[in-house]
Amino acid sequence: MKLSRTARAALLGTMIFGFTFIYLPLALVVINSFNTNKSFAWPPTGFTTIWWSKAAANDGIRDAVMRSVITALIATSIALILGSLAAAAISRYEFFGRDAISLLFVLPIALPGIVTGIALNNVFTNFFGKLTFFTIVIGHATFCIVVVFNNVAARYRRLGMNLQEASMDLGASRFTTFRLVTFPLIRSALVAGGLLAFGLSFDEIIVTTFTAGAGQTTLPIWIFQNLFRPNQAPIVNVVAAALILISILPIYLSQRLTADK
Amino acid sequence: MATIQNFLHRNVRARIATLLALPLAWLLVIYIGSLFALFITSIWKIDTFTSKVIREFTLQNFIDVFTDRAYFNVTVRTLIVAISVTLICALIAIPMAFFMARIAKPKSRPVLIALVLTPLWASYLVKIYAWRTMFYPESGFLQWLISPIGGTSPGFGMIAVIIGLTYLWLPYMVLPIYAGMEKLPSSVLDASSDLGAKPGRTFFGVVLPITWPAIIAGSVFTFSLSMGDYITVQILGGTFQMLGNVVYQNFSLNLPFAAAVALIPVIIMMIYLGSVRKTGALDNL
């Protein structure tokens, strides 16, 4: 499409504005993690790594990171199984009620998190006793299913059924077809969906606040609890900076995956 | 094993049922079941001394929610924030997506997409926290940036909440629109310009209508996520409050009432989803 100079300049301007808007605050957090000033007054007053070593020695943080990782691993595993099963049915077959069911599978992310949170909290506390570690996992798995479902369903829709039918026409059983044809084709969608589910679960705070049992502090809950304590501010900031730097990793991984195609 | 395979091979319905049984059971029992229980709880009473739920029917919670002016105002404020966030996200995302999908060289597209995706992986709290340091009333970065030209940072409040939420949900708007614009065949755009349309006319007459479902899909996220948020509001809002905060404050003391308030965003979202279903946006989610 041919564009005038001014249109091009305007679009480029929006791009630059957009990326500045996205990256400026994140850059500030990373810079501030080395700021000697405890209240992050701008411009920084000096360079220090003391906050990083203090954060590394903090037991509360280590404990919270572990819990978040385990939660995300279990929730992602549940989501991978249930989400891909649902995707296999909904995107490959026509059947009565399919539209309603596919709407049901996007509902947990289409409705606000606080609704999911309070609904689960109500059921767990008033009908099934109390909140534990596993109530967090159940809450997370519920919205993680949607993410895996979306990724895998999109892949199935694009693939169609031709290859599977060809495989079965050539005499392969259903199971063999899945193992040798279908699974390799959807593998990268499973990995992408799984990564996204892991990331969402690791980061989730709203549903977690409502479903976490006593003392079950995940990393986002730890950050939130310490956010308003002036003494902890530099350490919270280091955790934030570390998370920003770590978040480059999954992006790199998913880039590699899509590059393979 | 072989007989089961044979049976499934011949029977399509059994195949669908086998695939759907577990995931459907999970969502129906845990998710829809909880939503239904939430609705039931909202028509129950509360013992005002012990905060225990009494399982007796009442419509009082809904009467309170819908007759008290204060809750109406909170709902309107929440809607204003959710609509503003959605519009600003769309205004930034449409040109960005168009640039990435149509103007940028195909080689640099994956890099640009990665640049949009990266903040999606950064923690929610970290991002809001970053904006808290930006908006800090006297020592924040914005104050430092604006004061030389005689302005003052808006500080914490509704504007900070709108900017914070826009920041959080922007990638959710960019990605579906980018996907929609990338699928657009070049021949359609060429046809439009061959027929004499200027780029502006092509954009508004061809590109925008075709990518509309993708834009709506993005708006479902930005709208829903903004409407249910209460943590950003706590961190950036100062004294400003939204529906999520009302739910959060009431839920330990008066669960039935909190449940009634929580149903407001559900109803608004249902109306929204219902009204956009025909555009085909939900397949783009």
Summarize the structure.
The complex is a heterodimer of chains A (261) and B (285). By secondary structure, chain A is an all-alpha fold.
- Estimate the helix proportion of chain A, in percent: over 70%
* Total beta strand runs of chain A: 0
Kindly estimate the percentage of residues of chain A that lie in beta strands according to DSSP.
under 5%
CATH-defined architecture of chain A: Orthogonal Bundle
In the predicted model, the low-confidence regions of chain A spanning at least 5 consecutive residues are none
- The arrangement of helices and strands of chain A along the chain is HHHHHHHHHHHH
Counting copies of identical and different chains, the oligomeric state is: heterodimer
Structure write-up:
- The complex is a heterodimer of chains A (261) and B (285).
- Chain A is mostly helical.
- Chain A has one domain (58-260): MetI-like fold (Orthogonal Bundle), CATH 1.10.3720.
- Chain A has twelve helices and no strands.
- In chain A, α2 packs across α11, α3 (59-90) runs antiparallel to α8 and α6 crosses α8.
- By secondary structure, chain B is an all-alpha fold.
- In chain B, 75% of the residues lie in helices and 3% in strands.
- Chain B is built from 13 helices and two strands; from the N terminus they run ααββααααααααααα.
- A two-stranded antiparallel ribbon of chain B has the order 1-2.
- At the A-B interface, α1, α3, α4, α5 and α6 of A face α1, α2, α4, α5 and α6 of B.
